Amino acid sequence: MAQNATRYVAAVDLGGTKTLAAVVAPDGHVIARHKARTPARQGEERALETIAVCVERAIEASGLPARRIEAVGIGLPGPLDPDAGIVKIAPNLGWVNVPVKETLEARLRKPVFIENDANAGALGEHRFGAGVGVSEMLGIFVGTGIGGGIILDGRLYHGFGKVAGEIGHMIVQVKGPKCGCGNRGCLEALASRLAIVRDLTEAIAEGRKTILTKMMSAKKLHAIRSSLLAEAFHKGDKLTVKVIKRAANFCGAGVASLLNLLNPEMVVLGGGVVEALGEDFVDLVARAARKCTFEVTFEGVRIVPAKLKDDAVLLGAACVAFDRLG
Amino acid sequence: MAQNATRYVAAVDLGGTKTLAAVVAPDGHVIARHKARTPARQGEERALETIAVCVERAIEASGLPARRIEAVGIGLPGPLDPDAGIVKIAPNLGWVNVPVKETLEARLRKPVFIENDANAGALGEHRFGAGVGVSEMLGIFVGTGIGGGIILDGRLYHGFGKVAGEIGHMIVQVKGPKCGCGNRGCLEALASRLAIVRDLTEAIAEGRKTILTKMMSAKKLHAIRSSLLAEAFHKGDKLTVKVIKRAANFCGAGVASLLNLLNPEMVVLGGGVVEALGEDFVDLVARAARKCTFEVTFEGVRIVPAKLKDDAVLLGAACVAFDRLG
């Protein structure tokens, strides 16, 4: 192999429902990919084995000799220790203190590096998406929950205990609605898909009319997809518009806090809810944020939609692998 | 002058009521100081001249030849541009776009460097106070308002537009009480001395009993000093205890947001309210913060009272001068 041959890594996005693997070039080009259903809550061994198999399949599909893939980067949920390669807690997967790095290095015989998925998503957007060239950038991903990642001085910020970036758990409404984390009034409890669905369900139970109940049975509403929410929103369904505007206002308050606090150059908004609702949602958030921010703080700040969609975490995980390889 | 002679700087803390100047050694030792009343809202020329005179008097009092004082560092309110040396807005002083650096360099014939006062306070505590040796530290100063400063990787964090650190303007209660900044529900509107006084005044107007009305006339309550608040609190006055606990809870929610977001090693609490109430207030804040923070995020975090009291801004301003001199 020539000294200057292109280096490749495998990247993995381990989600609650699907496991995505790819072979990625240093310029972010995806050579090949493989996808499988995540065996969540069936023990960590099965989930880790699924990762390993997805990586192997992606490498096979790339047509590259396995030795050309120099490392594996994995984006996955939960507070984790990126140096030790251990996931501390991941409630969605049912994990506690899982040694991902050690287990998969033994299995795949390559260096394995892990990163929190929202952090990886922010890093992906920074290197290959909306935030290229920006020094201070925040990534906020509004989906079932709300995750975030902080880029300072062009690098992912981890903090003292390496668990920084929990933007979804900033408190924007003391004594507000209960959050999945056990606390009250977190941004996630007010502006995530689950919060939107909760507000819709409550309003429907109180007799509010909405086309949503024609689009699906009220009982199934808890599992409504962001795309259906977006359809009702864009059709101008009054209840949906009201509830989503409310969520966007809370999200804007969270962004305002972040701007007043960290004064970044750019805020990138991604995740299922933002993708489905598009620029409309981003505009609502930006307008709400502007109202609650000092004029000097808002000067020159850009609040923009994410560009990489489903690939943000995957490409961020690839960046982690390339960076750690050195 | 010998090459290795100690270098000195002059440091200034420009407050809304008093202007404090000192000659400071690199180890934080204050050689001499001079104090004057700040001529606030009487035009920037008079305030800047007061700074110049205080610096000259402090130098005289130090007994050092003026040439041994190599620069002047100034901590002062308002969003400002530390590189250009311009204060953008300082409502308390009535300033808009004041060229502090240029004006005082011409007047004092020494390099002049400026820094936001809360940033300077955080820097002072980091170098010479509670946060020595800590890599990620937040300084929160609860007084008439709430100011903050962020130390990351051992250095003051400024952000893209150089106006980061406005911890008092994180929104902890969307649609909450009106803040001086024009917004609603900022931490400052819920946990500052002004917020505490507002809550007390409202309760008294509603007929609530308190020893405060025996300590001073209700009309003068708006100007109550933190020391009197502390006296009523420590005497167990029910209303005062309730209102201060409420403020501490909001402050704790703000600290929790900061911990979840930035995962620092230490939070230093200072300012008039904290100094007057002492460890009691710090404990209340820490307990409230712990309740709203992930266990892994709280691990090893220290929430402590400031050490430098009135000298935090002054010594931070000295650090700015030494740092910028190189």
What brief labels describe this structure?
homodimer, alpha/beta, Nucleotidyltransferase, domain 5, 326 residues, 2 domains, 13 strands, 22% strand, five-stranded mixed β-sheet, globular
Written account of the structure:
2 copies of one chain form a homodimer. Chain A is of the alpha/beta class and 326 residues long. Chain A contains 12 helices and 13 strands. In chain A, a hairpin with a 2-residue loop joins β10 and β11. In chain A, strands 3-2-1-4-8 form a 5-stranded mixed β-sheet, sandwiched between helices. A 5-stranded mixed β-sheet of chain A has the order 11-10-9-12-13, sandwiched between helices. Chain A has a 3-stranded antiparallel β-sheet with strand order 5-6-7. Chain A has helices at residues 44-62, 100-108, 117-128, 188-191, 193-205, 212-215, 226-234, 238-262, 272-277, 279-291, 295-298, 312-325; strands spanning 8-14, 18-24, 30-37, 69-76, 80-81, 86-90, 95-99, 112-116, 137-142, 146-152, 155-156, 266-270, 302-305. Chain A has 2 domains: 8-122 and 311-325, 2-Layer Sandwich (Nucleotidyltransferase, domain 5), CATH 3.30.420.40; 132-306, ATPase, nucleotide binding domain (Nucleotidyltransferase, domain 5), CATH 3.30.420.40. The interface between A and B is large, with 51 and 51 residues.
